Amino acid sequence: MLVELAIIILVIKSQEISGFKAPQIKPFHFSGDLRIGLRTGVSCIVEEGDPPFDFKWLKDGLNLQETSGLTIKLVDEFSSMLFIKSLGAESNGNYTCKVSNSAGWDEKSDILNMKGEPC
C-alpha cells in the first residue's frame, strides 16, 4: 500500500514538473428546432490540455456505442463528434462527452429534449 502511494505521488509530481495538463473541454449544446426525423450532431473539443486523450460519449450515464442511427467520430487528436442520423423519442436524454489523459479528466453534458411535431 505504501509503495503504491509513493508511485502515485511520483507520477503526479513528474507530471507537474513536465507541465502535463489535464484536458479542458469546450461546452457543447444541441441547438435548433429538434423534432422527430431530423438529424443533429455535437462536437466535443479539447480547448486545453496535453494529448493523448481518450474520448467517451455517454447517454444518461451509460457508454454510447455506434449503431446504424448513431455515429461517433474521432475528428482529430483534440475533437470528437456525435451524430444522430434520425431523431426519435429514444433520442431524448442527457449526453456527456468525457475526455481523459494521464493527468486527469473533464466532462461536459447537454440535454437533448425534442419539442413539437414530427417532420
Automatic annotation (TrEMBL):
InterPro entries recorded: Ig-like_dom, Ig-like_dom_sf, Ig-like_fold, Ig_I-set, Ig_sub2
Ig-like domain segment(s): 23-113
SUPFAM superfamilies according to UniProt: Immunoglobulin
Pfam families: I-set
Coiled-coil ranges (or none): none
Protein name (Swiss-Prot/TrEMBL): Titin
Gene name linked to the record: Ttn_2
